Amino acid sequence: MSHNLLSTSLAGLKLRNPTALASGIMGYTAESLQRVVDGGAGAVVTKSVGAAPRMGYANPTIVQANCGLVNAMGLPNPGIDEFVEEIAHAKTILQAPLIVSVFGYSAEEYAVVAKKAAAAGADALELNVSCPHVKQTGSEIGQNPRILAEVVAKVKEAVQVPVIVKLSPNVTDIAETAKTAVKAGADALTAINTVKAMAIDVDTALPVLSNTRGGLSGPAIKPIALRCVYDLYEAVETPIIGCGGITTWQDTVEFLLAGATAVQVGTAVALENPNVFHAINRGVTAYLKKKGYGSVKEIIGIAHRT
Amino acid sequence: MHTALNTIRTTPILSVKTESPTVKTYTLKDKLCAKAKPGQFLMLWIPGVDEIPLSVMDAENDRVSVSVKAVGDATRHLHSMKPGETVGVRGPFGNCFTEASGKILMVGGGTGTAPLLFLARRLAAKAQRLSFVVGAKTKTELLFLNELNAVCTEQSVITTTEDGTYGLQCLVTEPLGKLLAETRFDMVYACGPELMVSKIFNLTEQHGIPFEASLERLMRCGIGLCGSCVIGKYRVCRDGPVFNAAQLSEVKSELGISKLGFDGARIPV
């Protein structure tokens, strides 16, 4: 009953509920991903994986801020040739769609990694064109419309599965970036990645992160992410996945009302625990019942006034 | 998790004690970490160098102590630091050992002895018997012998060295078969290299004795976010670092066998 209320679809993916694990959180192993599905997530997104292994940055890689975390992990990943085994293993145990996050240093590289991930069993791909702290990839791709379009188009040519583009808030107008991605073939958009940020220790007068600059996540960025989703809903027809500081069912409902079809939860998995998805789903179900809705799909975008 | 725990606090090193040619104990002033329970860890920021997880070795009043072996760039840099110099801490993080009573056996390998010494001091008063097997590669690397002898039941500290320069010449796991056959322990605690933990877990399982071990894996965030320290479905930093026999039996396919490297690839332990 309650599952029927929450079940939804996104770019052809069937979801038992509109929540998903955000990329970068616990996403190395099939068992970690399963833990999050057991915690109630309707889908999971892996760590971003590239063509070659990356060690990531030295610690400190996270630092606590008021109402959020600043992180610069540096895209640590084992490389797609190693990770295909984890994808295949995950597919044998996961009861929810597996979305593999992909990054590269060129359109060709994105396409090669995406193709291998899809061949290994990924149900969808999410293109990381928005990581704010690794040079020559991530947001450096997403902030350049010409390269962004090339990346999305090349990946679309290479795979049959849905392609989601994760957008950076660190642009003048996120709606313009979104239109570029959609025009190039994006099947869905995730908004937003972290907000470029840093922290300085006053005692030692040093930046805390080893990489100096990182990305802010958590409740601090929720209003920014919400506004981005609201803007995107008016700019494009493509389904939107809200992401940024979502912790509670109220946050989730806000994003759905703003126009998100689904949400991703990241920082809250650490600040709360992996069962945060169950808590969100219970709350959203109660809200839908109380308001007399028959499906979570009915509330998408209704905060918009025309 | 309370965000106050995760907020980095800079604090001066109060004292440095040399425990062995490669191990030093650092005492810091930090009110939050001073409330740590045996088994918990903290993240120590060496400004401009690195941030590393360390098991708490002692905590009282407003002070916390950690024992650090010089093994890499970060720990070697820390070994060059002196009282008065500034470090940062966040934590304490993770769970703690359950405090058993009755007949207790602890097995410590290398700096894994540090959190067990902290636990032994807490349990000594109510334990009927407190035995300790402590091992190292060589005599000069045996840690906390005086402290352990002071806190354990009379003549119940067994020492092992791999080169035979002190105590029994064997691995720290060697005397356990006999000990476990002779005495029905109510709880066995272990901390040290994962292969050691794995061996002891198998022995206690054969004897049907309750067992808890503190695990160490590559750790980055310390708060259950990054996934670097996972074993099976568990995050060592958040769900551990202390795991009981039931949990360890769920992760047998990885315990003492494989872990994640800095790039997230599965590598041998």
Task: Write up this protein.
The complex is a heterodimer of chains A (about 300) and B (about 270). Helices cover about 40% and strands about 20% of the residues of chain A. Chain A is α/β, with parallel strands linked by helices and about 300 residues long. In chain A, α6 runs parallel beside α7. Chain A is globular. Chain B is α/β, with parallel strands linked by helices and about 270 residues long. Chain B folds into two domains: about 90 residues, Translation factors (Elongation Factor Tu (Ef-tu), domain 3); about 170 residues, Rossmann fold (3-Layer(aba) Sandwich). Helices cover about 20% and strands about 35% of the residues of chain B. Chain B is globular. The two termini of chain B are about 30 Å apart. The interface between A and B is large, with 43 and 36 residues.
What helical percentage do the residues of chain A reach? 25-40%
Helix and strand element order of chain A: HEEEHEEEHEHEHHEHEEEEEHEHEHH
Counting H and I runs of at least 4 residues, what is the number of helices of chain B?
7
Tally of extended strands of chain B? Answer: 17
Beginning-to-end CA distance, first to last residue of chain B: 29 Å
Give the assembly state of these chains.
Answer: heterodimer
Q: Rounded to an integer, what's the Rg of chain B over CA atoms?
A: 18 Å
CATH homologous superfamily label of chain A: Aldolase class I
Stretches of chain A where pLDDT falls below 50 for ≥5 residues?
Answer: none
CATH topology of the largest domain in chain B, which one?
Rossmann fold
Protein structure class of chain B? alpha/beta
Largest interface: A-B, 43 and 36 residues
Shape of chain A: globular
